[in-house]
Amino acid sequence: MKVLVTGGAGYIGSHTCLTLLEAGMEPIVIDNLCNSSAESLARVEALTGGKIPFYPGDVRDEALLDRIFTEHTISCVIHFAGLKAVGESVQIPLTYYENNLGATISLCKVMSRHGVKAIIFSSSATVYSGDNEMPLKETSRTGGCTNPYGWTKYMGEQILRDTAKSDPAWSVVLLRYFNPVGAHESGRIGEHPNGIPNNLMPFITQTAVGKRDHLNVFGDDYPTPDGTGVRDYIHVLDLAKGHVAAIRYLLSHTGTEVFNLGTGQGYSVLDMVHAFQDATGITIPYEIAPRRPGDLPTCYADPAKSREVLGWQAEHSLKEMCRDSWNWQKQNPNGYEG
Ligand code: NAD
Ligand code: UFG
User: Fold this and answer.
1) Ligand number nearest to the C-alpha of 273
2) Mean predicted confidence (pLDDT) in 262-270
3) Could you give the residue numbers annotated as active site?
4) 165 contact partners, CB below 8 Å, separation of at least 6
5) Sequence-separated (6 or more) residues with CB below 8 Å from residue 326
């Protein structure tokens, strides 16, 4: 079964391509490589012995999409392609709206023309409003996003819901990811952010490899057990497997359904520092810094619906998340550039 994977050369996309191949499916990738390298796909091919047809280009290029749907009989689409840097989205909001919403709209138009009406969308825990009780359920309040990136996810969900409402043949699965970390255990594929990492785990691994002298812990006076921010970290391969489970659901249902992909377990920033140290034996120097604007004290999932409906749950431990993130970072200190 052929699955079109937009943004498939990226961090979550490359791990998902690997998992799809291992599940006997055939990923086909379109990616404009604006935040990735085609080397990730070459490495997935080497790891699995599979082949991934790759179309370099923009998802907003409808002629290119038309060509892909003509050349392949595609059963469904996983739509990862998008810009995702929260801070950058505040600086260049129009670029974010144009890219993230434009790609989703073009993709749905072309899918519709070719009669392929099954899509999985990469959404985010960021669509939940900040005033919810924890853990977050799929029915928790959404909206009130604190940055344009978050709004593109919120609006992307709405575009897909409305598309599914307009035509009962559509099947839409909205997956709300919590905090993906880790890498394939081989250390051959992983996450390599451009410039100074925004996210905690890449900052920790870059500190461990000597690229940063210390970690800034953004706030130690939150109402959490140790005062630092609590998040639901999930191994990227568990997240990838969630997509395989979602494909099975997608192809046997119509309408729109939303699922959290998280572990249900929250860990603080200092828990992460200690877990990394325990897993790797490397000390991470850190300093307490002011809170980061827009951050919530606590954010973690209730993953019960995914477990009950998709039959999926996260399996990797925090130790494995730390070990695999480090294994990737130390083998590839400069990402795919060697
Ligand atoms: P990533 O940047 O590694 O992957 C996204 C890929 O999309 C990149 O390879 C990029 O080159 C490509 N891309 C972007 N715009 C494109 C366009 N117009 N046409 C073609 N390709 C395009 O990011 P990721 O961490 O793998 O995230 C994948 C998806 O999951 C994104 O939609 C992101 O918003 C979402 N998400 C990520 C996280 C996270 O913490 N990583 C959390 C929640 C949701
Ligand atoms: N943190 C630090 N120091 C750092 C980086 C982060 O203390 O250098 C703290 C943050 O304050 C927060 C926690 O570590 O308490 C996690 O921060 P991340 O930036 O790694 O993750 P966020 O939960 O802020 O956001 C991430 C993605 C969003 C996505 C969200 C939910 O960046 O795009 O997870 O999926 F929407």
Assistant:
1) 2
2) 98
3) 149
4) 256
5) 205, 208, 276, 279, 280, 282
